[in-house]
Structure formats: C-alpha cells, structure tokens
Design goal:
395 residues, 10 strands, two-stranded antiparallel ribbon, single chain, Arginase, Chain A, globular, 2 domains
C-alpha cells in the first residue's frame, strides 16, 4: 500500500531499503568463482563470469545444495553459521503414498532458481544471513525408532550449536523427533503451530508411531495428559513425550476433508489442543487465523516451533505429497500466514510430506522452498535471525 503521508509505494520503499544493504557476499562469490573456476573464455565480455560454474549461476548448473549455500561437510563446524538446512529423508512412517524420502533432494534441486533477493520482502538473505546446507541425517530405513533417535540427536547438535534448524522431510512422523531435538534445550514451554489438512494426533497407527501420530507423542509427557486415554499399549516405544510441550499450545491450522482425522479427534478433544479448520479459516481470514494461532501457541511459552505439512496447500497447487486432500490453502494464503507467524520469531522449523515422485514441474518442492524462504526472510527483517544491523548502511 502507498504510505499515507508520502504516497510512496511499498515496493519503492523496499527498493530503497535494499539499496542500503551491502553487496559484500555478492562480490566475494564473484571473486571465489574466478579463483576456483578460472577466467572465462576471451569472447566473454562480462569478466565476472568464470570458466567453471562455482556460484549461483547458471541456476541449472553446478552441484546442488540448498540455494547453493556452503555445504557444511564437517558438521562440527555448523556453529559457524546462523541457520542450517538439514534433510531427513525418511518415509517409513507413511501410511499411503511413499516417496517423501526424496523430499530434501527435490527442495534442493528447485531452490537453485532462487538468489535470496526479495523486493516485496525487502531482504537479501545471502547478505543478511549466514546459511549453510548441513546435508542429510543418516536415517535407518527399516526402523522408525532408530531413525527417530538419529534425527533427534542431529537436530539437537544443530540447535545447541546456536544455529536455527530448517528441517526438511521426509514424512510427518518426523515431527516428534524433530521437536525432541529442540525442546529439551529450552528452559520454558514450547508452543507448536502446525499447518496440515490432517490432525496427526492419534497415538498409534497400525501398531507403530507413523506420520499420523507426531503430536500425540510430543505432548504426551505432560501433567495435563490422562495416559489412560490411550487405546494401545506403548511398552515397545522408546519414550513417552516432552514435558515442556503442553497440548494447549499445539495449534493446528487447515484441518478438514474426509480422511485421517477420526482417531486424532478424540485426542484433540481430550487434551484441549486448538483445531482451526478450513471453515474457521474462511471466517477468520489469513491475518485473523495467524493472529489466533500466535495467541494460542505463545500463551505461557518461551518459544514456538513451526511445522508445515505441504499437504495443507491445495493439491491443485501442491500435488507432490503423500496424502493429498482437496480444499486446502492457496499458496498466497499459506505464505501470508507463515510470514505473520514468523514475525514473532521461531526456535526451529520443519517442512514435511514433499513427495517428488508425485510432483508436477517441481511445483510442490518449490512451494516448500518458498515456505522456508518467506520464514527466514521475515525473521531477518524483524531482527529475529541473521545480522541485518551489520550489513545495513544508515539512511
């Protein structure tokens, strides 16, 4: 919108903001490309182009990491960065269509199209955020429980290194071990904002912890939970839950449709979690829904975790997912809510259920990438992440 006093368009104001951000990283990448990739052929007029691709361009070339950021091969050095993309390529908890083990690869592949510079967000991620790709966690395809142990330990390593974890699955069973890697290191309570078409709060699915169960287990070890409500014996499970993730601070957005919500409904009622259906969303709107989610998730909490299941977006836009359910969000609606939520800051985030084998033109992977970028960009502009103050010239 135009500024009421000056009449200046937001886009023009953002361009002025971007002009104040240094281009140091851009210049360093050019020099690195020339040093490592050699000088281009004599016929090339633009002498910033190297002979071998060693940077972002061309987008279709090079070795893919997330947005072609540095690969942190020695994970002991991840603390040198402010945020880290990490893949959890596990789909052993899938109850319908498999393929989300290829989610991290799909998101990395399409992320190459982005250069980190956003006019409508007034942010330059490569200048304002030290971001790396931590690679993939070594998951155990035949074991849900051993994979959970691997994932929790890996996420914990990233988080305790002072780095913001960006976890990309993989199926939604990972929600529990992902949060288990963060919550024990936070002194107060942790709220969870969960975008999905399905509740994912049932206790057991086909005798295992599956992608329909992560929030039952995350909120299970809490004083408000009646453990006798469970309909299954859990003696074969490794552990019981997280004491600082109260059920009342679990907010689920976009729930609806005709599949997968029957067992979780009882748990949601008993535990008092907040379920915002698509009908609620239609009445509240994007800003109202996001504001309600923030109020509920942050009440009495010291941190909030974002879980984004890509099937919350209508499969007309995001077909590449394990359990598609028509009637979900448009990309614009989902991204607007993500940006509003990210303004308050997050302790970590996950994007799950991207299944490239069912995708069309990488559109689902691209939406997953945008959820990540819009979250990071908003946190940077709001001073919740990154180092804007160090690269921004005064007006």
């Amino acid at each position: 919108m135009p500024d009421k006093k000056t009449g200046e368009l937001r886009g023009n104001r953002n361009l002025k903001t971007l002009e104040r951000i240094s281009q140091t990283k851009q210049e360093e990448e050019i020099q690195r490309g020339l040093e490592l990739g050699l000088e281009a052929a004599d016929s090339i007029n633009d002498r910033s182009i190297s002979l071998f691709s060693r940077g972002h361009l061309p987008a279709f070339a090079g070795i893919n990491t997330f947005m072609k950021t540095p690969y942190c091969e020695d994970i002991r050095e991840v603390g040198n960065y402010e945020a880290a993309f990490v893949g959890a390529p596990f789909d052993g908890g899938t109850t319908y269509r498999p393929g989300t083990r290829f989610g991290p690869q799909g998101v990395r592949r399409i992320s190459a199209v982005y250069d980190g510079y956003c006019v409508d967000g007034a942010v330059d991620l490569f200048e304002e955020l030290d971001l790396c790709d931590a690679g993939d966690i070594f998951v155990i395809p035949g074991s849900i429980e051993k994979t959970f142990d691997q994932v929790s330990k890996a996420v914990s390593h990233i988080y305790t290194s002072g780095v913001f974890p960006i976890i990309v699955g993989g199926d939604h069973s990972l929600g529990y071990p992902n949060v288990r890697g963060v919550a024990p290191h936070i002194d107060g309570n942790v709220g969870i904002i969960h975008f999905d078409r399905h509740l994912d709060t049932q206790d057991i699915d086909m005798d295992e912890r599956m992608h329909t169960t992560p929030w039952y287990w995350t909120t299970n070890d809490h004083e408000s939970v009646e453990h006798n409500k469970a309909h299954q014996a859990h003696s074969h499970m490794h552990d019981v839950g997280l004491s600082n993730c109260p059920p009342k601070n679990l907010v689920q957005i976009g729930i609806g449709g005709w599949y997968g919500n029957r067992p979780g409904s009882e748990v949601a009622r008993d535990r008092g979690t907040s379920v915002i259906t698509m009908k609620d969303f239609e009445e509240l709107g994007t800003a109202g829904t996001a504001a309600m989610a923030l109020d509920l998730a942050w009440k009495g909490c010291d941190a909030v975790y974002l879980s984004f299941d890509i099937d919350s977006i209508d499969p007309g836009y995001a077909p590449g997912t394990g359990t598609p359910e028509p009637g979900g969000f448009t990309p614009r609606e989902a991204l607007e809510m993500v940006r509003i939520i990210a303004k308050e800051g997050l302790c970590a985030m996950e994007v799950v259920e991207v299944s490239p084998p069912y995708d069309v033109n990488d559109s689902t992977s691209q939406l997953a990438c945008r959820v990540i970028l819009d979250t990071l960009g908003t946190m940077v502009t709001e001073g919740k992440l990154g180092h804007r103050d160090k690269v921004m010239r005064p007006e």
